[in-house]
Amino acid sequence: MDENTEIEFRTTGSSLLNPLSDLVGVPLDQVNFIVCQVFGLAAAVWFRLYLTPQFTTPEVRHAFAALIGASFITFCFGWYAVHHFPIVVTHASVKPQNTLCSYSRYTMVVSIGYLTICQVSRVIIFNYGILSTDFSGPLMIITQKITLLAFQVHDGMCQKQEKLTEDQRRLAVHSKPSLLKYLSYNINFLSILVGPCSNYKDYLEFIEGRHVQSKLRSVKDANSQQNGWDKIPEPSPVKTVINKLVVCVGCLLWFFIITKAFPIAYNVDPQFISEASFITRLGYAFISIQAARPKFYFAWTLAEAIHNAAGYGISGMDDNGKVSWDLLSNVYIWKIETATSLKSFIDSWNIQTALWLKRVCYDRAPYYGLPLTFVLSAIWHGVYPGYYFTFISAVPISFAARAVRRNFRQYFLSSRQLKLCYDVVTWAATQLTICYIVMPFLLLAVEPTVMYYRSMYFHVHIISILAMILLPSKPRGSKTLSHAQHSNNNLKVD
């Protein structure tokens, strides 16, 4: 038992903070990660205040961002950091025009292939004693950026603009990035450890000092007929950053107090399965999954705060006329916890990864867009069997959820009371379904996954298949739906 624990918590990075790890009782890899992110927060403030675009050239900002990012991955992963630099090869392999139009496909195959090789080696090295932070994490983010940029370069230099969607036209890149820009975009300290993946054009505007102007284009001086960009001060991110850091502290407290009290592995404890009732097992699964989420909330919210502290992340103005800093939001916690449909949950969880999947796969696949997107997501996450159980199971469950929603939702829109009942029931169904789907993702291996699904009698799979078979593809009560929507246009519709 002690040997397994030692394997689980070993790290390939610096051991400088080992005394701190022993003192607080937190694995060294996690201590290294948190310290780097805290340092990254301080570096982001310094970057915004002392390397401003008004007094610093873009080349200097690119270089500093890349150098600090490279130091982070070296500190956290030691010699394994070399796995993060084949990006130079993908950049150098692109020749003007003759290979550029096949660049996107080549980059996707090579990047995903190399990531998969690293994921396989991770399984062999750690033998399921998976570290919370290992070298494949940053590589996953770099893979997103490399492939996304490749398709955006393809859209800008090889595709006819009329064949592109509005989103693809807006994000198209019309020239090959320099090596410095390419490195800065991929390994900058803001996103190297946990992301999120941002668009190349947005990042370039941030480095060059055009981010505020681009995102607040509709803002005009109320006392002037001109835009007056020089008169508009750069919005301060201080309040937004503080709010997000408060969320991070809350997530940490939740993790240390609640998460450790409800381990995921207990869901497949043989004694628990044999002695507890189905309802008890269902309830524990719900609680343990709820308890596991805050560690993701913490990592993503802290990463977003770091970007905002550097002055990056403005998306525009909100409904109250205030600057909105959610361009790089990776999670909407409230929307997740109150989601009443599978789609609402997915749209609010790991948002930037979902956008990456949409832009490189779903929007471009000629056929079977949804299944292919789930398969790509599983491959990107890694080679643990539990990942494939999760994402492959999600395909029929997603289709079944759509069928149920299409056929039944219309009957609950005639009054607020019925709509409230519908929301409560669908919230419970959504949260329990999510628990069922993602449990293999956390259990990782085949044996505990099958054991869990047997203990749950495969009930979600069975219900989903029956729903797909029995429910019509188009609801019969379309007239009822039209009437209900017309008479209840003031009701909140998800």
Automatic annotation (TrEMBL):
Pfam families tied to this protein: MBOAT (PF03062)
Subcellular location: Endoplasmic reticulum membrane
Claim: Nucleotide-binding is one of the keywords in the record: no
One GO-annotated biological process of the protein: lipid modification
Chief localization: endoplasmic reticulum
Membrane topology listed for this record: Multi-pass membrane protein
Keywords: Acyltransferase, Endoplasmic reticulum, Membrane, Transferase, Transmembrane, Transmembrane helix
Sequence intervals crossing the membrane: 31-51, 63-82, 112-131, 245-266, 387-404, 424-446, 452-471
One GO CC term on file: endoplasmic reticulum membrane
GO MF entry, a single one: acyltransferase activity
InterPro entries per UniProt: LPLAT_7/PORCN-like, MBOAT_fam
PANTHER family assigned to the protein according to its UniProt record, in alphabetical order: LYSOPHOSPHOLIPID ACYLTRANSFERASE 1, PORCUPINE
Stated name of the protein: Lysophospholipid acyltransferase 1
Organism whose genome encodes this protein: Triplophysa tibetana
